[in-house]
Amino acid sequence: MRVVSVIGVLLVAGAASLAAQHAHQLEISGFGSYNRYDKNFQLDNQLGGGGRLAFYFNDYLGLEVDGNLAYPFPKAGGPHTQVREASASLVINSGGERNVLYVLAGYSRIDMGVNPPYNFALHAAHGALGDRLFLTDRLALRLEARAYYAPKSCCLTSTWVGNVTGSAGLSFFLGGGGAHEEAPAPAPIPKEKRDSILAAGGKVPEPARPVRPRGGPTYEQRPSDWNHKWYWGAQGGLFVFKTNFDSYAFEPTFGGHWLVTGKRTALYVAYEQSFFLSDRHTTIVEPDGTIEPGNVAFHDMRRIMVGVLAFPAQKRVEPFGGGGFALMQLLNPQVTCSSCTTLSQFTQLQDEADAAASKAFFWWMGGIDIKQGRLALYGHYILTSSARGFLLQGTTHTFQGGIRYSMGTAKEGVSEGH
Asked: Are 184 and 208 in contact (CB under 8 A)?
């Protein structure tokens, strides 16, 4: 109760002094981290790093996603493992214009690695206390202390486990407006001037109302050049997936896209390529019924996406979403078959792996778009459906950011002949 009371006093005290400086801003941040793991994991404390993306609905409330990666060594010796953390948080802000304290809480998925006994994942809750120290109007030093709590570990212990992370990094803020102050009311007409106007049979003008200035570019309508334009863009990020042999993998992905806009919707066409840092493996049944774990290796992925996105708010900074169809292909699957006694059996298994390397999917996307003239910055999340018989297991997840630029009109004008 004492901790809750202290946090409550902090938020109430800060709210009185918080000017409307950071509402509707997008925060992009990179950070370094120091990670202390639960003693049940028997892992050395380790430095790591990550990034975050946050959007502030108003001056006090925001939504944030972040990821953290570290390579700790087991205390008993041996090769390092990978600890990957992906989190979604609700953020409550408080403080002043140049010093914004905050608390946050949310859900985390902690992937403990790829090598036994650390090839398992945890579902955890987390909470954090932090501070943003603004160096300029758009750049801030962000400091944070965070704790993770998992009710039960799947592999190493039956009791709850907890990790602690401290991080420091720089945050850059896009969008938003300054303080929203009303303009002063016009001075009243002097009595002598008012009497002279009435004596001459005139009418005293009504006092003008105070002018409320617009709060920066955040809520301005998109300019007319949004409609019926052809955008070319580029994006990069992480492709997240798992197989029936490997746990979750986080691989870099890059690509380009075309966006053809209407009034509040747009046609989206994209081509992407993911470059795996190492071979990934899955298991398929061999021709004689033998199951050899990890008998298919593959490297890299390409994806073609077609769909429709909706931009309902028509603001310079706005959320968007949509969906469509995708073709996904895993490149160069190679099989091993210890039970194959003939070339035809090996060829049959290779053909099955090739067929299982390419499937069609549904996809759904949600993100935030920031437009300035012909240029737009954006970040989005993509969820693809699962497919029976595919080399990847279950749904896949993609986190990306990028830019797009308007190359001109996508609508032919109508001209009359003479």
From this structure: no
Residues forming a β-bridge with 375: 372, 405
CATH 3.40.47.10 matches 2-175 = no
Report whether 17 contacts 98 (CB < 8 A): no
DSSP states along 104-160? EEEEEEEE--SSTTS--EEEEEEEEEEEEEESSSSEEEEEEEEEEEES--SSS-SS-
Instruction: Establish whether domains 2-175 and 224-408 are of one fold.
Output: yes
CATH level 3 topology of 224-408:
Porin (2.40.160)
Could you tell me which of 169, 167, 168, 171 has the C-alpha nearest to residue 139?
A: 171
> 121-134 and 334-335: which strand pairing?
unpaired
Cα distances from 342 to residues 180, 288, 291, 314, 346, in angstroms, run 78, 11, 17, 63, 7
The pLDDT tens digits for 328-360 are: 999 989 999 888 888 998 999 999 999 999 999
Domain ranges of the chain: 2-175, 224-408
Distance CA 344, CA 347 (A): 5
pTM (2 decimals)? 0.54
